[in-house]
Each structure stands twice: as structure tokens, then as C-alpha cells.
Design goal:
This protein is an all-alpha fold and 145 residues long. The chain is built from seven helices and no strands.
Length: 145
């Protein structure tokens, strides 16, 4: 059985899944702030499932829309830069895990979290600017502007 959704609906589902993947940290952070010691890995697994699953749904929407040359030309450099910023934000965890898991050192997590969030949120904001421009141009064409 195959679900028949429009690219826009796949994109919204993907965005929702990504949002849930990010929001999964809320109870964990609240528990940490209250001094409780909850296990980290289930939250990381839920985060990665939501974010990567949402990314796949968004990729499906892009594939369904095809590669119309004008749609892909809008913000091409910004899309590339947003992807780079997101990758660098995710890669910010590499030195943290190397130091803690391989070398066995105790290190503060917050600088790595700050680098992760800076890269990822900057990349997302840049990508949203492309999406907003694309929608604006599409609605302008549809309404004769």
C-alpha cells in the first residue's frame, strides 16, 4: 500500500517530524535542570529518528516536484551554504565524541552544543529564506504579479 500525498504534504510531514525530533530534548533538558539523571541514548535515538526521517520525507517531496530548472536556480548558492552549515554543525560533535569516547577525557558539553546549534540553526534559517523566496515567486506567478 502506497500513501498518495502531494509534495507539499510530504514536506509538511517532514517538517513536523523534524520538529518532533528537536522537541524530544525538552523533557530531557527539564529533567537535567531539575537535577535528575535520565539516560541520554533514548533521547538521542528519538532525536535522530525524527530529524533524519523528516529529512527523508522532505527529500521525497523535492524528488516528486522534479528538477524544474527555474525552481532549482532560486537560491542555489544559499541552499549549498545552508547544507554546509548544517553538516558543520553536526560535525561539531566529532571532537567531543573523540575526546570522551576514545580518549576517555571528561569535557564540558556546552561548547560543542553551542557549535552544533549555531551551525544547524544558521543553516536552517538560510534554507528557510530560500523556501520563502521560492513560495513568494510561485505565488506571484500564480496571481499574475
Amino acid at each position: 500500500m502506497r500513501i498518495a500525498l502531494t509534495p507539499s504534504e510530504w514536506r509538511w510531514l517532514g517538517n513536523g517530524l523534524i520538529l518532533l525530533g528537536v522537541l524530544v530534548w525538552a523533557p530531557f533538558l527539564i529533567a537535567m535542570a531539575m537535577g535528575e539523571d535520565w539516560p541520554f541514548l533514548p533521547f538521542l535515538a528519538a532525536h535522530l529518528t525524527g530529524v533524519l526521517g523528516g529529512w527523508q520525507l522532505r527529500a521525497r517531496a523535492a524528488t516528486m516536484e522534479g528538477s524544474a530548472s527555474t525552481a532549482w536556480e532560486i537560491g542555489r548558492r544559499r541552499r549549498w551554504l545552508s547544507r554546509l552549515l548544517i553538516y558543520l554543525g553536526v560535525l561539531a560533535w566529532a571532537p567531543y565524541f573523540y575526546q570522551t569516547r576514545v580518549l576517555g577525557h571528561e569535557v564540558e558539553i556546552f561548547p560543542y552544543l553551542a557549535a552544533h546549534l549555531t551551525g544547524v540553526l544558521s543553516g536552517v534559517a538560510l534554507r528557510l529564506s530560500v523556501e520563502m523566496e521560492r513560495r513568494w515567486r510561485r505565488s506571484g506567478r500564480l496571481h499574475g504579479a
